[in-house]
Automatic annotation (TrEMBL):
Residues 1-15 form the signal peptide. This is Vesicle-trafficking protein SEC22c isoform X1. Its main location: endoplasmic reticulum. The keyword Methyltransferase does not apply. The gene is sec22c. It comes from Stegastes partitus. The chain crosses the membrane at residues 232-254, 261-278, 284-301. The keyword Endoplasmic reticulum applies.
Length: 314
């Protein structure tokens, strides 16, 4: 079983992918880790030089140096020190092949793809370096020199890598129109999964609920300010429920920071507003409105980001 599954080299300042290995395993968690890895690459400038992201079976490790970050997805059974040994070897190989000026001038994604998988039009001494390095570690279980491993272990003991919270990374990147914010020239394009049939149904029902709420609220305003000032809270409840329905539609259609917190907050407000309106609405109407809000919340939380990166076959 391979312990090092994927390696990725990116430019720190904007997350531009420079090179990557080819992975031949297509399990679901690996694809999720690759997507998370690209998300992290957008925020590398805010992180220390070494970091790790813990997963169920697969972990992400990265090392940044001289404006370039070296990242990998490894099986959790691989010792942390060996993972960072691999990254140090990868860093040494990359810097031996490409100087900082070439890296800084790179304008398109994967300009050094042959360094990762050896598919360049013209053969060179660094063709497939990442693949060879992966193979060496997967077959031998670690670096050739034990002294190197011991040095890394000691360094990690003194300066342990920062454990990265993925939720904070994803939320801090921000989005617009369902897309993650992109660095100039990065070629990255992450967006939400396509809208499903249940999603369309929830949008229609949410719009219906919002319409009913605003119609009842506006209708009550006339009578409230003429005869019954005590009914102003009913107006507030209807209009607040209307606003929450609109925001639920927005949360479903567009990626947002703190999605889980916002979703449950909106659901709670809608439930409370409808319970407050009991008497103006019968039990079946309350059940309908609360059920629509609950369905929307479930679909919002289940609609994930998809990766539409131009992977160039990696």
């Amino acid at each position: 079983m391979s312990l090092i599954l994927f390696a990725f080299v990116v430019r720190v300042r904007d997350g531009l992918p420079l090179s990557a290995s080819t992975d031949f395993e297509h399990n679901r968690e690996l694809q999720e880790r690759k997507q998370q890895l690209r998300t992290i690459s957008k925020a590398l400038a805010r992180f220390p030089d070494r970091g790790t992201v813990k997963g169920q079976q697969l972990n992400i490790y990265f090392v940044s140096s001289e404006g370039v970050s070296y990242m990998t997805v490894c099986h959790c059974s691989l010792p942390v020190a060996k993972a960072f040994c691999f990254l140090e070897d990868l860093r040494w190989e990359f810097t031996a092949c490409f100087n900082s000026t070439v890296v800084a001038l790179a304008a398109r994604p994967y300009p050094f793809l042959e360094f990762g998988e050896g598919r360049g039009m013209v053969s060179s001494r660094f063709d497939g370096t990442i693949q060879k390095l992966k193979q060496q570690y997967n077959q031998s279980g670690g670096p050739a020199l034990e002294v190197t491993l011991a040095e890394v272990q000691e360094d990690l003991r003194i300066h342990p890598p920062q454990v990265i919270n993925l939720d904070e990374v994803e939320l801090s990147n921000g989005t617009a129109n369902g897309h993650m914010e992109q660095g100039p020239g990065s070629g990255q394009n992450q967006r939400l999964e396509p809208v499903t049939a249940p999603g369309i149904l929830s949008l229609v029902l949410n719009i219906m609920c919002a319409s009913l709420n605003v119609i009842r609220g506006v209708h009550l305003i006339e009578y409230t300010f003429q005869d019954d000032y005590d009914g102003v809270w009913n107006v507030v409840a209807f209009l607040l429920a209307f606003i929450c329905c609109v925001f639920q539609c927005h949360l479903y259609l567009f990626h947002s920071s703190l999605k889980k917190l916002k979703s449950f907050t909106l659901l709670s407000v809608i439930v409370l507003c409808n319970l407050f309106l009991f008497g103006m609405r019968n039990a079946w109407q309350l059940i309908f409105h609360i059920s629509v809000a609950s369905l929307s919340t479930v679909l919002i939380l289940n609609r994930k980001l998809q990766d539409r990166t131009n992977d160039c076959g990696v």
